[in-house]
Amino acid sequence: QLQLVESGGGLVQFGGSLRLSCAASGFSLDYYAIGWFRQAPGKEREGVSCIGSSDTSTYYADSVKGRFTISRDNAKNTVYLQMNSLKPEDTAVYYCYTPYNWGQGTQVTVSS
Fold first, then answer.
1. Cβ neighbours of residue 105 under 8 Å, at least 6 residues apart?
2. Cα angle at 43 between 41 and 46, to 5 degrees?
3. Residue 30 has what pLDDT?
4. Nearest alpha carbon to residue 94 among 102, 109, 106, 82
5. pLDDT, average across residues 76-102
6. Cα–Cα nearest to 67, from 81, 55, 53, 51
């Protein structure tokens, strides 16, 4: 079964940090661009970041630029999203995705 499983979410205070992980099973992430999007209640889905298959190209939404860092470890078949200087407006369910599937999401809540 081809799966993406996110982890690392939680409750953090304003200004805190979290590192999200996205682990793939049943297939190799080596050849895929991987991204993260988030969805907060009552808001539209927002693309947060993505990383190319070669790990040389990255994209960040303006809302997270300078605070979030995406990386990948192909040996572990995992992609990470390091989130620093978190703000209440970062509160959302975060999903990782490939061009073909996405995970179940992990909740990030930032208290003010």
1. 6, 39, 93, 94, 95
2. 115
3. 86
4. 106
5. 96
6. 81
Is it the case that residue 55 has pLDDT exceeding 70? no
Interatomic CA distance for residues 75 and 92, integer angstroms: 29
pLDDT beyond 70 at 51? yes
- How many whole angstroms separate alpha carbon 81 and alpha carbon 45? 17
Task: Give the separation between CA 91 and CA 98, rounded to whole angstroms.
Answer: 22
Tally of residues, the chain: 112
Residue bearing the bigger pLDDT, 37 or 2: 37
Which amino acid belongs to residue 89? E
The two structure tokens encoding residue 11: 């409750």
Number of Cβ within 10 Å of residue 46's Cβ equals: 14
C-alpha radius of gyration, the chain, whole number: 13
Look-up of token digits 């809540």: 109
